[in-house]
Amino acid sequence: MRLEIRSNDRIGISQEILHIFSKSACDIRAMEVVTGVTYVHVNESYQDSAKIIEQLYLVQGVLSCQEVALMPAERRENHLTALLNRIPDPIIDLDENACILALNHAAIALLDRPDETLEGLSINTFTDQNLLQGLGANLSSQSILFKQKAYMAEISPVLMEGKVRGALLMLRNMNSLGRQMSLMQSQKEQGLEQIIGESETVQLLKQQTRRFAQLQLPVLIQGETGTGKELIARGLHQESEQRESAFLALNCASLPEHLLESELFGYASGAFTGAKKGGKPGLLELADGGTLFLDEVAEMSIYLQAKLLRFLQDFRFRRVGGSHEISVNVRIISATHQDLQQLIETGRFRADLYYRINVLNLVLPPLRQRGDDILLLVKHFIHSAARQVDMPTPKISESALARLKAYSWPGNIRQLQNLLFRIVALNRGEWLSDKEINESLNLTFASASKQDHQPDANLSVTPEVPLDKVFDDVIENENLVSWAGAQANFEASLLNHLYPLYPSTRKLAKRLGVSHNKVALKLKQHNIK
Fold first, then answer.
1. Is 134 exposed, middle or buried (0-12, 13-18, 19+ CB in 10 A)?
2. CA–CA–CA angle 230, 236, 240 (5° rounding)
3. Angle 464-470-476 (CA atoms, 0-180°, nearest 5)?
4. Fold held by 367-452
5. What is the Cα gyration radius of the chain?
6. Where do the structural domains in the chain lie, given as residue ranges?
7. In terms of C-beta density within 10 A (0-12 exposed, 13-18 middle, 19 or more buried), how is residue 45 classed?
């Protein structure tokens, strides 16, 4: 029986109320007093509540007396328990000796024991780290192994009179952390609908991507720089059953070997000087249940290639400096613009890793092979650029569109996007003039050609060309007056002899081991049609 007794606030009234229960031999289980209200919980076996209430009204100052379902503390505890049980992350209340005081349903499910056997048990039974050691007055976060599985632990100290008297422990699953990181990397989900193009090549690529997305196998994406390899990787993830899990991307060319290793595999506490307490999870852990995209995988060192291969064999690994093996379920998508077969021949890429990551293969077409898709992309990027610089979308002439379509775009879609953004940002008229387009393309062409003027060790001359004839043409030229003139004459003679045998800039560039931009520039410079 629980009674709520309202009364005037006077000294000694609580003692008189308790005396009534004492005379009736009631077993008082709990009592709470606030100003003007006294709550009493007596043993449920006592049935004569009417007699008790009648006697309470005889106490001077008692205004009302009625039965209630719960004591205030019980009501608060029930609401707090319901609130904690709604939180999907395990929450454990600890005393100052790291013993368990209370848990929510998620924590009970994680520990997989009856909750009555958990209270009073040390939390160190489930982890080899002393979580409360060195705990200060502020929130602490550290990576821990809890029941041999990695979690991010958030430890909130319970302070009394400035001293730590316990802590509230929340365990964050690596899956949820990875999902948050994925959302931070890309504020909006990017799927196949973001790929602009109606050409047969693009439609076939989308069909293959959707089909591969349903197969939980490694995928290798190959294509030139700027063709949208990461966009295709995100499309694979969004079309798969793991779309609600994390998609994390790592550029293997952006970090030195030791940083790339710890970024990928994480590190244990004390693995090296400056390592965080509790260690740090790697992207493989954070992407557990989702997808990890390894961009420019060809830039990975042979050492890390071997370590990645070991992981792909059974999806288990150890953190740098760690002793515990961690098992994860991650889909690996790799991408490169380099020729991996050639790198294998030169010993710069492991053949066994190539076969492991190249179970499914997607080859992205360069922009120059996508025909009218260029026109769709031009209109899209112009509109997007105008919106970013907060100006009306300018128009573009058919001749300018034809000029853009005819260009070779060595930097592919990224180059097209950047060029149009620059033109739109500098434009102040209603139209994008042909002059602006031509000047921007010529500037881009000249920049690429300048880079191509570096000495090329791969330059070789086809056996079909009589070299003595080439040198004779140079020496016998009457305009030969300087070293630069001899070099120019040699280039002209070489191209005149080779171009009929390789009648396109790309074929000739491949034969000479240089870029087709360089060949095109030299043909134009020497007026070779």
1. exposed
2. 150
3. 155
4. Helicase, Ruva Protein; domain 3 (1.10.8)
5. 37
6. 2-71, 87-177, 186-363, 367-452, 467-525
7. exposed
The neighbouring-strand residues paired with 65 are 5
Q: Measured between alpha carbons, how far is residue 527 from residues 276, 405, 461 in Å?
A: 64, 24, 21
Q: Please, which residues bridge with residue 325 across strands?
A: 318
CATH number of 186-363: 3.40.50.300
Kindly write down the DSSP assignment for every residue of 317-373, as one continuous string. Answer: EE-BT--SEEE---EEEEEESS-HHHHHHTTSS-HHHHHHH-SEEEEPPPGGGSTTH
Specify whether the backbone of 280 is left (phi greater than 0), alpha (psi in -120 to 50) or beta. Answer: beta
Looking at domain 2-71, its CATH architecture is 2-Layer Sandwich (3.30)
Calculate the alpha carbon distances from 228 to 232, 331, 337 in Å.
6, 19, 11
Kindly report the CATH number that applies to the domain delimited by 87-177. 3.30.450.20
Beta pairing, strands 316-318 & 91-95: unpaired
- Give Cα 326 distance to the centre of its chain: 20
Structure tokens at 429: 């008229």
Rounded to whole angstroms, the Cα distance separating 502 from 460 reads 14
CA distances from 281 to 249, 277, 290 (A): 15, 12, 15
Residue 4 identity: E
What are the φ/ψ torsions at residue 438 (nearest 5 degrees)? -65, -45
What is Dmax (Cα atoms) for the chain? 134
Q: pTM score, two decimals? A: 0.65
Length of the chain: 529
Tell me the CA distances in angstroms from 123 to 74, 96, 109, one per residue in order.
Answer: 26, 11, 15
Q: Which of 63, 71, 79 is nearest to 28 (CA)?
A: 71
User: In Å, how far from its chain's centre is CA 89?
Assistant: 21
Q: Among the listed ranges 183-187, 295-299, 323-327, which one has the minimum average pLDDT value?
A: 183-187
Per residue in 338-384, pLDDT tens? Answer: 999 999 999 999 999 999 999 999 999 999 888 888 889 999 999 99
Count other Cβ atoms within 10 Å, centred on residue 275.
16
**395-396 and 431-432 as β-strands: parallel, antiparallel, unpaired?**
parallel
Give me the residues paired with residue 326 across strands. 317
The pLDDT tens digits of the residues spanning 452-463 come to: 444 333 333 334
